[in-house]
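User: I'm putting together a small comparison set for a docking exercise, and I want a reference complex before I start. The sequence is below, and the ligand is fe (ii) ion. Could you produce the 3D structure with the ligand included, as structure tokens?
Assistant: Of course. I'll restate your input first, then give the structure tokens for the complex.
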Amino acid sequence: MFLSDTHLPQLLPPSAYTDPTWYITEREHVLAPAWHAVATTSQFPRDGSFLTFDLFGYPIVLRRHGSVIRGFLNVCAHRLAKLTSQPTGYCSALRCGYHGWEYDEVSGATKKIPDAPSFKPLEKGMLGLTSVRVETCGGLVFATLSEDAPCMAQSLLACGIDVACKISSMGCLGMREIYFPVNWKVAIENTLESYHVEEVHPRTFKRAPAEEQCSHELFPSVSVFRGPGDTVPWIQRLEGVLLSGAAVPHTGGYRHTHLYPTCTLAETDTFTIVLSFLPESADRTRLFMSWFGSQRAGASAVWNSLIRSWGRVQSGFWLKVVNEDLSMLPTVQQGLASPSHPGTGLISRREERITHFQRWILDRMHTDTTATQPATTLATHSCPSAASPMENVLT
Ligand code: FES
Ligand SMILES: [Fe+2]
């Protein structure tokens, strides 16, 4: 059942989805303080593997050192060039490609400066890269620009996500990145309602579940939808066999969790797809998606492998669903960008998770933007509160 008895207001104005000035404030007060799913551990196959990307304008480099993935702002302390523009690869040292400054792989402090005497009286280790907090949860890598954001693993645990089973490194089946010309909230809000199912997904989902089959849960920074999983009898039987073989609980249900602001997880008993909507600008988003088969540590390798195979089959369906949504969303964005609108918009009871999310955004946008200190400050290479190695050990 839905929580609200009546329809609800659309709280965000159209400019929230189109205005570059809104986006700049949002970046500071909504995006920078939060965790974001940015990679999978499978993208770091060995010591020295690295990945670079922009996180709402901040160039980031993630690099595996030993069994730990560490993050830094991808900006050199010498003349502020990016260390590298290569999107992914392997490097034996954390080194800037312009003049060759090298940095400590753990602390980010300068380690080697070519022709160091010409920088007198600069001493070794005085300058360094800016650290970025990284946490590895199962097969997913999260990053935040905040020093204060609470531990991501605990947040996942608190909302009942069985990381070891649902998003394990072993269960990771694939990942993909898609750029599209839509504000990130348009894309997120689309995942928070099943009202569009019959129009947008006539070939996949076909029909939205009846209200009696649905439930919504609203928490301070999370919302959850629960509904029925696949109801095709042979699929239920197959999943029952696979799950009992691997000792994974069989609920027959579907759960969609939104971890505010940018990350969603859609789970069935055997399969999880994670969609991370990473804003690039007011009207452009990078979708980083990854998908997993459920795994049970201690179950026989054969059963875990069979569930992964079934997960690969299911991924075809889910990628089709995502494509159906992405085909529709630019049309939504274009309507929002119109200079005038027939009213302020309206949210149905079935779409009530959207209003909850919009209120959360507004609460943060209304923080005092005139304060001299930014809400978020990046840790320097010497900051003692940067994530401890134990927090992002590959598992
Ligand atoms: S800008 Fe990086 S070494 Fe000069
Ligand atoms: Fe959809």
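The CA atoms of residues 146 and 383 lie 12 Å apart. Residues 368-395 have pLDDT under 50 and may be disordered.
User: Thanks, that's exactly what I needed.
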